[in-house]
Amino acid sequence: MSDIIQVVTTVEKKDDARRIAELLVERRLAACVQIVGPVTSVYRWQGQVELAEEWQCLAKTRQGRFDAVAAAIGSVHPYEVPEIVATEIVAGSGSYLSWLREQTD
């Protein structure tokens, strides 16, 4: 079992994804953030089914950092209700997990 999580958020613009990624890494809240996209999202918003092209940020960090990561994302995220969810990473290479922990100290 690991104390590492991946936090996911999505934004409409690649520049917003880059801003979030740089903020998290500069503040040592995440060891790395991958920007993936564009992705297509289908969701319900205000009673309507919406279709949007978005950019996804995948931030690797420690479980104990989630609240700070969520707050940082929320402080710059352009959406009224941003997706900020975490998934536990249950296994990984020892050297990678060690590096990740060092980067978020």
Number of strands: 4
Query: What would you report as the Rg, rounded to the nearest angstrom?
Result: 14 Å
Q: Level of helix content? A: 25-40%
Instruction: Describe the sheet with the most strands.
Output: 4 strands, antiparallel
Please mark out the parts with pLDDT under 50 across 5 or more consecutive residues, or reply none.
none
Q: Structural class of the secondary elements?
A: alpha+beta
User: Which sequence of SSEs, written as H and E, runs from N to C?
Assistant: EHEEHEH
Measure the end-to-end span.
19 Å
Q: What's the CATH architecture? A: 2-Layer Sandwich
Shape: elongated
Strand content: 35-45%
Mean pLDDT: 96
- What's the total helix number? 3
Query: What's the CATH topology label?
Result: Alpha-Beta Plaits
CATH class bucket: Alpha Beta
Count of distinct structural domains: 1
**Order of adjacent strands in the largest pleated sheet:** 2-3-1-4
Report what the structure shows.
The mean pLDDT is 96. The protein is elongated and about 45 Å long. It is an alpha+beta fold and 105 residues long. A 4-stranded antiparallel β-sheet has the order 2-3-1-4. The chain has 3 helices and 4 strands. The chain has one domain (4-103): Alpha-Beta Plaits (2-Layer Sandwich). Helix 1 crosses helix 2 (66-76). It has helices at residues 14-26, 66-76, 94-103, and strands at 4-11, 32-45, 48-62, 85-88.
